[in-house]
Amino acid sequence: MLRKSLMAVLAAGSILALAGPLQAESPNGEGPLFENPREAVTWRREELKSIERLVRQLRFDLVNNRDARGAEPRLAELAERASGESLLPAFIEGSHGRGSEARPLIWEEWEAFEAGFADLEARVAALREAAEAEDYRLATRELSDLSLSCRSCHRRYRY
Ligand code: HEC
């Protein structure tokens, strides 16, 4: 039993190691491990939906309630989840097609796709700074810029 599951983990590991772009992303095997591309697609879609909910809650915290303190734990969570380190390993090469809205272009332009997440991280950091300074006008602007960052990637890489 134990042996069997160990084998499964090892097998998953070697499949991941074969997926080109992934190698650069998680050389130490950190982040979620996926048994197969379909599982990665399911995970990333759920994850992106949670991220969307988190951003919506932050808009409520910062724009409606002007509550930087309440926003802080959500901002910390967003910084962790809306990042290349967390999301890129789920974009296993070739995991597009049925059940996914990802365009194959992602793997043709992997570096540009990665850069989209670097931009996202920068936007989240800027939002966090504005919230820490309790500058709600700036936070409102940063939230718009954050949404632009989401949308500009979607325009190019999502159906
Ligand atoms: C660098 C590219 C990139 C960035 C940045 C990005 N996304 Fe996405 N997003 C994608 C791709 C690609 C898909 C399609 C994934 C799939 O279906 O396999 C997607 C799908 C989604 C989905 C649909 C999930 C589902 O299946 O219902 C939501 C919601 C979403 N993203 C929200 C966001 C939000 C909110 C942000 C910004 C905070 C964001 N994304 C930033 C690339 C990106």
Query: What share of residues is helical?
Result: over 70%
For the biggest sheet, the summary is: none
The sequence of SSEs as H and E is HHHHHHHH
CATH architecture: Up-down Bundle
Net shape: elongated
| CATH class type | Mainly Alpha
Classify the secondary structure makeup into a structural class: mainly alpha
Distinct bound molecules: heme C
Tell me the domain tally: 1
The CATH topology assignment is: Four Helix Bundle (Hemerythrin (Met), subunit A)
> How many helix segments?
8
Q: Assign the CATH superfamily.
A: Cytochrome c/b562
Mean pLDDT: 87
- For the termini, the CA-CA separation is 42 Å
Number of strands: 0
Rg (CA only): 17 Å
Low-confidence stretches: 9-28
How would you sum up this structure, described in words?
- With 159 residues, this protein is mainly alpha-helical.
- The protein has a single domain (36-157), classed as Cytochrome c/b562 (Four Helix Bundle (Hemerythrin (Met), subunit A), Up-down Bundle), CATH 1.20.120.
- It has helices at residues 2-18, 20-25, 37-64, 68-81, 84-87, 105-108, 110-132, 136-157.
- The N and C termini lie far apart (42 Å).
- The model is unreliable at 9-28 (pLDDT under 50).
- Bound molecules: heme C.
- Heme C binds next to helix 3, helix 7 and helix 8.
Keywords:
8 helices, 159 residues, Four Helix Bundle (Hemerythrin (Met), subunit A), mainly alpha, 74% helix
